[in-house]
Hints:
By secondary structure, the protein is mainly alpha-helical. It contains six helices and two strands, in the order H-H-H-E-H-H-E-H.
Amino acid sequence: MAKYFLLLFLLASCYSVKIANKQLNKAQETYPEATAKKCALWYPCEPFKSVSDSSEYKLWIQQVDSLNELKIDTLIKFDTVVKYSLITDCQKLVIKYRDIIRKYPVIHDTIYKIDNAKLISMTIERDKALIDRAKYEVKYKVFLKISFWLLLFLILFIAYVIKRKLY
């Protein structure tokens, strides 16, 4: 009777993953604020990484630069101005600048937030997998050695049996 009691005590005192998940779910249902605070304390958010998509902006800058490269009749210090065609050219240029400035592109920023709890969980799983891999690698090497010696023994045994039958 004492053995059964000891066995029952040992089985009841095991704290498995299933029991832990049940307790966490119960705590989440009854005290969600406390659970959230504990999770934030244990697994704080990582600083975010942002990436800007500036391809449209670069294209817009190229358009503005192309307007600056337009050749308009320029006056040198000692030139005499016969016609006032410069004013009409400036108006065209101003209109082009206004059109391009109205087309100023929106720059989209992509923000990546790193979930630290998920990262830690995946790290733990990876570490367990690496430990299992090392364990199975050792077993594989032992199996190879045993297989080699067993194969060598079988070949020698078959050779011995064949020689014995020949004589």
